[in-house]
Amino acid sequence: MHETKKLEFKETITNTFLKTVSAFSNYDGGEIFFGIDDNGNVKGMPNVRQSCLDIENKINDSI
Q: DSSP 3-state assignment of 18?
């Protein structure tokens, strides 16, 4: 898989993904996959439950 206009890979959870969330929500939607590097290699996430909470909290805190 490769990144496209509607598909974005993020290896880690940083605030930079918030720009992608904003772009996708203001355009035509899209998907962000965490734990995957820019080359499409799966790196995984150390704690999936905590990662989900972190993503949700970062989005909620920014709106």
A: helix
Q: Total domain count for the chain?
A: 1
pTM of the model: 0.84
pLDDT digit string, tens, across residues 4-36: 999 999 999 998 899 999 999 998 899 999 999
Radius of gyration of the chain (CA): 12
Q: Which domain holds residue 52?
A: 7-62
Do 11 and 43 touch, CB atoms closer than 8 A? yes
Give me the half-sphere count of Cα atoms (radius 13 Å) on the Cβ side of residue 60: 6
Please check whether residue 34 lies inside any domain of the structure: yes
What are the residues whose beta carbons fall under 8 Å from the beta carbon of 29, sequence distance 6 or more?
Answer: 6
Q: What is the C-alpha to C-alpha distance for residues 11 and 42, in angstroms, rounded to an integer?
A: 8
